[in-house]
């Protein structure tokens, strides 16, 4: 690689990237003036001279004593950039008209953003013509895979008959009825993104109770509206984060007034006692709590037995409501999301991502009592594009024809194939790691110990996840680029060969970094 190439498309950093980069850069050099400078400096001085040298170096894993993790990452990043000259060119060109060269800050990834040309079935293709097994899944959207015949048919039929009326259509009723059946909540409204759904949920909890405070879990992400941009990925600095049993309400974005973040009280996941304390310290002031019932923005962290039911009972005993943010788990954890998976039905469920079959659809469902406040106009749940006919046609097809019982059986078989293969390689290579998976989603956690909450998650070294991502990418499998924070998504169009490729790449990675 030409080191200049890497710096030419050197992206701006985001909160998530800063967390990952600082640690990777620390691994790469001991005397770092600034993480990204250190990265570039290291790449310039110790990179293999040519792309083929880099490839040869990466292809022959050396013993850990002579081949450090940082050297492995460096070699893999060289291969990555070498494979994608057109992506590099587009990333550079894009900085003229697209701020930061991307369309969302979370599309910035290291060593450079990957520009895609198209997707088909279980595969993605980049602008350099490389094919990937898609386990990125568009951050949890692509449960249907790409170009699924049922989605294509539904969208094609609707696009010719009008894409927007701002009036209800039959597909919305069919989709809402099916969501009621799956999630055990009788009434639904639609919107366009996970952010909108969780914003409506927070508004509703406040409108219904007439209270201002909400409780959220440290490390849970619920989109980018003010009330929940709190302690999503708080600074490693203990003063910023506060103690584990009483985390601070740390803003997770600039531009959010402290007056708003102060209304969001933060607790650790799996910590019922902390919720009880917050409720008792603020009697009659807490509107409700929002959480990812299975955390999926800190790898995957599952709730301990009794935690979710305990939350529901505790909140209700204080006149407060419980919202499950199922934007990631809805349809991917199982046909009825985490609600069906855990058997605990909250007052409100938020859905987005996978329910639209690749189109922008989100939904909010609630108990009859909660949704009465929408029906009677106490809370005006609105939006020009809500439940537009194109989105509803795709959502209906997703629920009726894609996320079927047969599909879930197939997903479960592929999940088992992946988990068995990864666990075998972890064992064979003596890695301090374990696999966590739920339904179509899963991840390798690079720690021998189970992860119970965000603080445990923070202590995991991200360099292994980044190295794993690079090995997969260079080996033709596209995982989401956020290291330890994200997880794979298997679609209904993946097959055994896709999973075998994923496991084979993991085996190569494990042999390179293992004992
Ligand atoms: C759990 C969760 N909730 C909400 C959101 C926000 O969804 P959107 O990006 O569609 O606004 C996300 C996005 O990643 C998420 O993971």
List keywords for this structure.
Aspartate Aminotransferase, domain 2; Aspartate Aminotransferase, domain 1; 21 helices; binds pyridoxal-5'-phosphate; 515 residues; disordered N terminus; 7-stranded mixed sheet; alpha/beta; 12% strand
Q: How are the strands ordered across the major sheet?
A: 4-10-9-8-7-5-6
Using the alpha-carbon principal axes, give the shape. Answer: globular
Determine the strand fraction and express it as a percent band: 5-15%
CATH-defined superfamily of the largest domain? Aspartate Aminotransferase, domain 1
Query: End-to-end distance, in Å?
Result: 29 Å
Specify the number of helices. 21
Mean pLDDT: 89
> How many domains make up the 3D coordinates?
2
Task: Give the cofactors and ligands.
Answer: pyridoxal-5'-phosphate
Rg measurement, Å: 23 Å
Helix content: 40-55%
Would you state the CATH class of the largest domain? Alpha Beta
Q: What would you call the structural class?
A: alpha/beta
> Could you please say which CATH topology of the largest domain applies here?
Aspartate Aminotransferase, domain 1
CATH architecture of the largest domain: Alpha-Beta Complex
Give unreliable regions as ranges: 1-13, 18-22, 24-66
Number of strands: 14
Structure, described:
The protein is of the alpha/beta class. The chain folds into 2 domains: 3-143 and 406-513, Aspartate Aminotransferase, domain 1; 168-402, Type I PLP-dependent aspartate aminotransferase-like (Major domain) (Aspartate Aminotransferase, domain 2), CATH 3.40.640.10. The chain has helices spanning 3-8, 15-28, 35-46, 51-59, 69-83, 85-94, 137-140, 149-159, 170-183, 194-209, 238-241, 258-261, 272-281, 307-317, 337-342, 368-375, 389-402, 405-428, 454-458, 462-474, 496-513, and strands at 116-120, 123-126, 131-134, 187-191, 213-217, 264-267, 286-291, 321-325, 348-351, 362-366, 434-438, 441-445, 477-478, 488-489. It has a 7-stranded mixed sheet, sandwiched between helices. Strands 1-2-3-13 form a 4-stranded mixed sheet. A hairpin with a 2-residue loop joins strand 1 and strand 2. Helix 5 packs parallel to helix 20. It is globular, with a radius of gyration of 23 Å.
């Amino acid at each position: 690689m030409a080191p200049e190439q890497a710096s030419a498309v050197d992206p701006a950093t985001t909160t998530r990237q800063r967390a990952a980069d600082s640690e990777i850069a620390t691994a790469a050099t001991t005397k770092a003036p600034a993480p990204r400078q250190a990265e570039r400096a290291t790449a310039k001085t110790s990179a293999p001279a040519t792309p083929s040298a880099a490839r040869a170096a990466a292809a022959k894993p050396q013993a850990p004593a002579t081949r450090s993790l940082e050297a492995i990452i460096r070699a893999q990043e060289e291969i990555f950039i070498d494979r994608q000259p057109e992506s590099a060119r587009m990333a550079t060109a894009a900085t003229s008209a697209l701020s930061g060269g991307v369309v969302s800050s979370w599309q910035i990834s290291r060593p450079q953003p990957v520009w895609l040309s198209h997707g088909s079935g279980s595969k993605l293709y980049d602008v350099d013509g490389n094919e990937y097994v898609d386990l990125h899944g568009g951050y949890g959207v692509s449960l249907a895979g790409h170009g699924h015949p049922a989605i294509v048919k539904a969208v094609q039929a609707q696009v010719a008959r009008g894409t927007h009326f701002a009036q209800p259509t039959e597909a919305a009723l069919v989709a809402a009825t099916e969501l009621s059946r799956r999630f055990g909540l009788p009434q639904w409204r639609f919107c366009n993104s996970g952010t909108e759904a969780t914003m409506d949920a927070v508004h509703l909890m406040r409108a219904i109770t007439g209270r201002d405070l909400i409780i959220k879990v440290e490390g849970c992400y619920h989109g980018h509206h003010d009330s929940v941009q709190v302690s999503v990925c708080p600074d490693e600095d203990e003063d910023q984060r506060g103690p584990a049993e009483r985390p601070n309400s740390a803003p997770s974005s600039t531009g959010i007034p402290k007056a708003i973040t102060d209304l969001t009280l933060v607790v650790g996941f799996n910590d019922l006692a902390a919720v009880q304390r917050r409720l008792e310290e603020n009697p009659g002031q807490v509107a409700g709590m929002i959480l990812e019932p299975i955390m999926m923005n800190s790898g995957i962290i599952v709730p301990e037995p009794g935690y979710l039911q305990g939350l529901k009972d505790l909140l209700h005993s204080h006149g407060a409501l419980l919202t499950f943010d199922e934007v990631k788990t809805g349809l991917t954890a199982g046909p009825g999301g985490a609600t069906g998976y855990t058997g605990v039905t909250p007052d409100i469920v938020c859905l987005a991502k996978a329910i639209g079959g690749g189109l922008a659809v989100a939904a909010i469902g609630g108990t009859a009592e909660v949704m009465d406040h929408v029906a009677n106009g106490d809370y005006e749940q609105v939006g020009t594009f809500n439940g537009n006919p194109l989105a509803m046609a795709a959502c209906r097809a997703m629920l009726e024809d894609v996320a079927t019982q047969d599909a879930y059986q197939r997903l479960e078989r592929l999940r088992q194939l992946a988990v068995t293969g990864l666990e075998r390689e972890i064992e064979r290579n003596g890695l301090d790691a374990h696999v966590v998976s739920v339904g179509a989603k899963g991840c390798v956690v690079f720690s021998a110990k189970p992860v119970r909450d965000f603080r445990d998650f923070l202590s995991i070294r991200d360099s292994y996840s980044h190295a794993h991502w690079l090995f997969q990418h260079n080996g033709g499998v596209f995982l989401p680029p956020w290291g330890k924070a994200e997880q794979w998504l298997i679609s209904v169009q993946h097959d055994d060969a896709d999973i075998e490729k994923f496991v084979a790449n993991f085996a190569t990675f494990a042999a390179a970094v293992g004992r």
